[in-house]
Design a protein that fits this description.
With 387 residues, the chain is an alpha/beta fold. It has a five-stranded parallel β-sheet with strand order 2-1-3-4-5, sandwiched between helices. It has a five-stranded parallel β-sheet with strand order 7-8-11-6-12.
Amino acid sequence: MSKILIIEDEAAIRRVLTKIIAEENDSYEVENAEDGLEGLEKIAKADFDLVLCDIKMPKMDGVEVLEKIKKLKPEIPVVMISGHGDLDTAVNTMRLGAFDYISKPPDLNRLLNTVRNALDRKELVVENTLLKKKVSKKYEMIGESEAITHIKNMIEKVAPTDARVLITGPNGTGKELVAHWLHEKSDRTKAPMVEVNCAAIPSELIESELFGHVKGSFTGANKDRAGKFEAANGGTIFLDEIGDMSLSAQAKVLRALQENKISRVGSDKDIKVNVRVIAATNKDLKKEISEGNFREDLYHRLAVILIHVPALNERREDIPHLVDFFSKQIASEQGTATKTFSNEAIALLQAYDWTGNIRELRNVVERLIILGEKQVSENDVRLFASK
């Protein structure tokens, strides 16, 4: 059930908007407020998924209402309702964080498309906010090696800027962790970070996933849908495994980076986006360029800042810190007592060939905590950490 609040001082307009939206989808629950003060009181007391707000109202105008909503509950998309003379103001509200604006009298299709797109974006924002909170609590940049210290220093310098970052390194080294820390230490941290695993999405669907689509643009496109770039507007989009992206999608990403606008699949309409792009890959993109699999111009657009995350075998001095961190984390998750590791056990773990990197080390630590003695010994490692 999606809760929608309409803030509008004209009773006739309220009735029309309520009727149109309620009849569109029986899962929409619509409430009304006669002015901005009443609207803000309702927003403070209940969770709404979307607010439609008039610009010209008594007691408090829509611009002020928008600013207060963005401070009170910034995750709620706000669509401004503008009269003919309010269009310049409506456009300015977009800079203040409005999702969109619709003109009076409302066009039926325009109104319903805007409502659906705003609710889609709200759902994505909530999902990514939950993920962000989960990541913030569970993961930290662990290690004191020269390589990790260098990465931490890079993040501190680069995060406050809007510079695009390309993160390279083998699978399991923590490239996505670097991306999250870049976002969380940036000025965009209050906006969403949207992740896209380019390798996990079929090539025929990647463009729709990134840029959205309009109804009927392909089989299965039953309604208009916003893409990940729109969902990340004002925030960060993380394109993981970008080396696996199709050349067709690469061309569209390049255009988005060059012009700060995208178009949905099946549509010629341009949509402006303000998104910071962070990309990651385990591939040698220069080799992919020479083989015709990756666009050189896109590479140069993405690789403004390069951060390489080394394999665990290249920073074995961090293994004691990682084992200690994972031990406490796993014990907390399982509700068990924390186990210690003997010096001999740690030394043996440092000698292993960690082809699966950090991901493999965590799995081994979890296995040892479950199967090992109160203090994990060298013998436990030999028994339970074998490849």
